[in-house]
Amino acid sequence: MQRLNTVLPTESSSFSSSSAPNAEAVAVVAALAMRPESSSMPSLPSSGEPLSVEAADYLFEFWKQMGSMFPGSWERQNGASPLKHDRTLAPAGTTWAQILRGRLRSQHARGLAACLTEGREWPPTPGRFLQMCLDIPVMATVEREMTPGRPQSGFTVLVRSLLDLHVYATAENGFQQRRMLEEAYTRAVQHVVDGKPLPQPVLAIEQEKHGVRPVRDRESARAAMERAAAELNFDGD
Predict the structure, then answer these.
(1) What is the 3-state secondary structure (H, E, C) of 6-22?
(2) In the beta sheet, which residues pair with residue 152?
(3) In the beta sheet, which residues pair with residue 89?
(4) 98 and 46 within one domain
C-alpha cells in the first residue's frame, strides 16, 4: 500500500495561521477521491506498541491535513502529534487511528471534503468524522427531511422505518418526539457503521392543495347541480 504522503501535503506551510481551509487542502481532498478503492489505514498495533513506519507516516500526514484545515484548534484539541516520543500512540492518536482504520480512501476523502463543505470553524469529534466518512447526515438534517413534502435521503428513510410513525405523530409533546427520533437515529447510525445497506432515497411528493378548484365545464356542473336538486327535492315539490 502506498503511503498517504503520496497524496497529502508534507510541507510545514500546511499549518497556516488562517482559519479558512487553504487551496492545498481542497486539492488534496480531490486527489484522495481519485485514489483506488483500498483500505486507507495501515494495520495498527495496540496503543502500547510502536507503530510501523507506514502507519506512522499515514497518521502524521492525517494530522497535518487536519491541522491545515483547522489551524490552532486541531492541535489544541488533539495535540501536536499522534505519537509519544517512544513512537507509541498518544491517547488522541489511538482514538483517531480507530476511526481511520479499515475505511476506504473514498470514505476518508468524503470525511475531509465534508470538513470543507460544512464550513466548520472547529474540528469534528472522532465520532462525527466517522459519520462524515460514511455520509451520515446530522440529526437536524434528518428532522428537516422528515417534514412532509420534502425529499428524503436513504438514511432518513431508514430512520423513518425504525419509528412507529403513528406513535411518533400522536406524541403528546415535542420532547417525546425528539427522544423517539434520537433512538431511531442512533440505531440507523449503527446500521450504517456495521456496513449494512441503506434504502433508496425518496423524492419530494407534492402535497395536495386544498381550497376552491376552478370549474372547467360549467354546463356539466350546472346539469349535475340540477339533478342533485331534483333528487333531493330542493325545489319544494
Answers:
(1) HCCCCCHHHCCCCCCCC
(2) 202
(3) 83
(4) yes
Cα 79 to its chain centre, rounded Å, is: 26
pTM score, whole prediction: 0.64
Do 109 and 143 reside in the same domain of the chain? no
For the four alpha carbons of 59, 65, 68 and 72, in that order, the dihedral sign comes to negative
**Helix, strand, coil distribution of the chain in percent, nearest 5:** 55, 5, 45
Residue 59 belongs to some domain of the structure? yes
In this structure, the answer to whether residues 70 and 112 fall within a common structural domain is: yes
Contacts with 137 (C-beta within 8 Å, 6 or more apart), sequence order:
145, 153, 155, 156
Domain count, the chain: 2
State which amino acid sits at residue 121: E
* Confidence check: pLDDT of 77 > 90: yes
Place of cell 365545464: 217
CA distances from 145 to 9, 141, 199 (A): 37, 6, 15
- 152 three-class SS: strand
Record the cell numbers describing residue 182, joined without a space. Answer: 434520537
Pair (58, 82) in one structural domain? yes
pLDDT per residue as tens digits for the range 157-211: 999 999 998 898 888 888 999 999 999 999 999 999 898 999 999 987 655 555 5
pLDDT tens readout for residues 103-157: 887 888 899 899 988 888 899 999 999 999 999 998 999 999 988 889 999 999 9
* Owning domain of residue 82: 4-133
